[in-house]
Hints:
The chain has about 260 residues and is α+β, with helices and mostly antiparallel strands. It folds into 2 domains: about 5-130, N-terminal domain of MutM-like DNA repair proteins, CATH 3.20.190.10; about 135-255, Helicase, Ruva Protein, domain 3 (Orthogonal Bundle). It contains 7 helices and 10 strands. It has helices spanning about 5-15, 40-45, 120-130, 140-150, 155-160, 170-180, 195-215; strands at about 25-30, 55, 60-65, 70-75, 80-85, 95-100, 105-110, 115-120, 240-245, 250-255. It starts with a helix and ends in a 7-residue tail after the last strand.
Amino acid sequence: MPELPDVEGFRRVLADHAVGRRIRRVDVIDEGVLRNVSSDGLQRRLRGRRFRQPWRHGKRLIVPVTGGSAVLLHFGMTGSLSWADSVQARHQHDRVVFEFTGGELCYRDMRKLHGLWFMRDDREVEGMLADLGPDAADVSRDQLRDLLTGLRRQVKVALMDQAVIAGLGNLLADEILWRAYVNPRRPCTGLQADDVARLHARMRTVLRHSIEVGRVPPRKTWLTGRRDEKSGSCPRCGTTLSHGRVGGRGTVWCPSCQPS
Length: 260
């Protein structure tokens, strides 16, 4: 599932290839991903205009358009954004393709859980982001403490709540908690100051390295690189990893490094 580093990677794809090019055509292959605009309406509003520098908040990508409007993309569980220098054969999960002279930008999504919104102005963009907490890549240690203090829920559930912190998904949350020696089921009310300090430091480290490669890397020295192995062991201490569900999500942790 795309998380903050993936969406930052999609932002770079768009910024590196599509910004400043005139949109020749918008090919809407599946209207099922359009959330507040029709196929004809999107074509009419974007054709002949140009994308400006995109920016990201959590897992949402905002792409300003000349004239003051914007496109907002949410990648759900299976979405992606890719560039091709020439017209390509359509993939079965291609949903919207932005065509330019000399290339095309493709929004692909198998499950279509979210999609594309057309925003007429900055006020509408702000409204679409109003339900989100601060971006995880920008949260300070004091902010993290304030966000988690007093929450009567498990710490993993809180970290994945986009209204608390925007951008963290299942892989990131498990990786951060493992590195911080915090059990995913620990209640936020049980976190001490040093727990929060470790969570913040490890969150910054994991995000920095993940953003560099545009994903949470499945390295063998990371929890992510061991979590799907049948008898996966902790990269740090060698203990067999535990598997369970927290907040309805498949969760992996080390029972030795992250005791209850």
